[in-house]
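Hi team,

Filling in the usual template for the complex we talked about on Friday. All components are listed, including any nucleic acid strands or ligand strings, so the model treats them as one assembly.

SUBMITTER: L.P.
PURPOSE: interface mapping
COMPONENTS: two
RESIDUES: 963
SEQUENCES:
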Amino acid sequence: MPFELLTEREGQVQRTREGARLNVVCDKASVAGSVSQRACTFCGSRVVLYPIADALHLVHGPIGCAAYTWDIRGALSSGVELHRISCSTDLREKDVIFGGEGKLEASIRELVGKYQPKAAFVYATCIAGLIGDDVPAICRSLELELGLPVIPVLAEGFRGTKRDGYNAATRALLSLIGRGDTTKIGPLSINLLGDFNVAGESWIIRKYFEEMGVEVVSVLTGDGRVEEISRAHGARLNVVQCAGSMTPLAEAMQERYQIPYIRVSFFGIEDASDALYRVAKFLGDPEVLQATQRLVSREVKRVMPELRTIKQSLVGKKAALYVGGAFKAFSLVRALRQLGVTVVLAGTQTGNTKEYEDLQEVCDEDTIIVDDTNPLELASFLLEKDVDVFIGGVKERPVAYKLGIGFCDHNHERKIALAGFEGAVAFAREIRATATSPVWQLMPRRHRRSDVREDVTATGEPNELL
Amino acid sequence: MNCCDPEPEGMILREHGASNHAASAEHATERDASQGTLPKHHATVNPCTLCAPLGAVLAAAGVEGAMPLLHGAQGCATYIRRYLISHFREPMDVASSSFTEASAVFGGEDNFSRAIDNIRRQYDPKIVAVGTTCLAETMGEDLRMMIDRYSQSRSSSLPIVHASTPSYRDGHVEGYHAMVLALVQSLARPLTKGAQSASPHQGTTAKPALPAEARVNVLPPIVSPEDLRHLRQIVEAFGLGGTILPDYSDTLDAPIRSSHRSMPEGGTSLVDIGSMPLALGTIDFTMTGLVRGASDVLVERGVSKFLLGLPIGIVATDALVDCLEQLSAQDCPGWLEAERGRLLDAYADGHKYVYGKRVALYGDPELVVAMTKFLLEIGAVPAICATGARNRALSSGLAALPPGSVERVLEDTDFSSIEAACRDSQIDLMIGNSKGYRAARTNGIPLLRLGFPIHDRIGAGRILSLGYRGTVGLFDSIVNTLLERVQDSSSVGFSYL
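RESULT (copied from the run log):
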């Protein structure tokens, strides 16, 4: 059947026009019966806290919520890997009837004894909320009993969108922050918020700051450690990368600990350079600034030749992107532009009004902007815009592939680090491998079998097929 | 062999009497950990099951023009989509009624109706298949009433089928069976000859290629699209039509297109489902444990059932061939006989490399039971048989084996238990889905990927393991996985066998 945009979604799908100011409707619950690409409140909290590798993550609910989030992100750890196991109270019918509190207490004791974590996060899912288990009270009493932070994450799926899950994660992180000793933290210090060390990206960024002479007190939450996070309030500046998930935490830390924050991105060489300079300028130390200049100039020189070469094969290609948060979208638009690729569709799961305004600023004219889209919309727009490469997560991949369109994973599952200067090169290689692969030329969108026959006869060779 | 015998050889009879439970105890089932050798656990660590609505969605994906809808919060549908996509690598649209806090307090009927309205506008489905999430189940949402009220208020004849799928009761295996049961219960109406044209769905779907009287119903558990295609090929080789329910061989393994289809092509048509009670018989490869299965409903509607194990190996595939010969009164075609011979030839080539090898099997009960019998057939040792399913199908399926065939049976288990069991059982090979990767890696055991989900490799939908042909591929893979281990760990290497 022909594609029809749902009336309820009209405000959430817009096209940029010269001089026009779009008001993209956003931050609202997904429309019932529309196949949203979003998950739920639980998912939002789980993805943010997931990379904390020395904490126990216990999902209180029936088995599904834990099963679907087992080893879900490519968030690497430099040591302990408790985040890569999946723990659930696996509530059963009798627990739903009689309450799951006993099982929860026993599970926390058992798992803390077995895995010796530095803290425990206890996620309350839909059912925990509905049957009225007092998760915060159990966490409080077990924290006293076991002598480690036991932190409730109230993330019932029906309570709101994925964004509300970010807020639940923020509250959980705030209850860790402030517990640690900050006396040894120097003045040239930052926290990196919203990097999840997917494919080791936090390590790339940390290395830059170390070279600049900047102390990274904690990364929230990539390669995260409870001890580091509990000292985060001692840093001088919060550097926020994934703005969607971490702005609430940055704002809360500003209020509570008077730590200012800046929003940056490390995707693409422009944004990565800009991020490092902004941190250096904020800290105001001449040596740091000099070191930053040396680093940026060396790295740009190192990666530019290959980026230029790759650009030659990409000029004129068209890209679509659908990502979680808006800051990644801005960066990708700029990074793609630098590779000669035009973004013709840009969307996010969780962007807010201000972010959508900024997104249209950075986009070319007649770009389709979508909030909380669905597969039918995506497919329709990919074809309309004749896209060469679609950038998104696993759920978007088959929408592209089934139409014979290239796809690049820029979500948790990817195994290639795309941040920083080396990441910019890896990204360019990814886009080239995707957009210029010869297989797309064989796809029905570009080519029919009869074309082959014509091609063959056009060369004058005898064609037995005809 | 007369496959209408009450207890045909090679077939698993689904009985849930006390005798079966007594028999399963001989295999030291560790379902109830207090009776087994494993310490009692409170928490589940690294689940060996997915949730019930996922199974319901997958079953629905094999029905032509069916749109799956999960009644509950948005996340369930999205997680399930992501999981199915990562295995099948196909578009997989699952709608949600997207509960808000207000729906959780005041009930979700309004969301339900809006969801169906929006699905109809966007997808124009032939049927909506509804699964209920834990949230809706705990709230006690009355789906039957909501469906009736929806159909009345909209004057809609759109079939809406509901399977109750709370994950605090069931996993994906049971959810899949529940949806197949619900589809058969509500759509396989006992039609009489000539009454097909009176089908309420007539005109929306192509008519069956063969009259219903020359068809057999086939009820598979979760298998690959390639397996479904091969099952159809085998059934048709006997001059029979096959109504396979569900049949996602096309919907979840579709060719690339130049335009997007809101509904993928293929799937079991509603007309074919409606005609199931007229078929020659139902070949049921599922094991629903203690719960009534779809084939039982069809028996009530006049169709004999033939309970077979999944056709993996000579004996199990012979049982299917015997059954089809009986139903069709036709002999096994030559090409299939030849494939049988090639499988035996492969056994001769490779038997030494598998003899006595200790294998840990895990996954859905039907696959684990079939693989257990296959391993016994080729001289390997099914040392561990494990499933996360809760329906007791695994222990009842293994109960018919001679005592001592299987060393350890773990039911309703998790991967932390499987990993521990593998650690002290000198396992040579693990066979199962991708979720066993960590246990395999930790224990240094090679892993052969089979079943669902496989999301760390491509081509899960193209794995064929059924029939003589599928078994040849499986056997070769097992032998070669073991050989590769020997070769890799050899100090001198070798370049021939």
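MY TAKE: The mean pLDDT of chain A is 92. Chain A touches chain B through 78 residues (CB under 8 Å).

Thanks, L.
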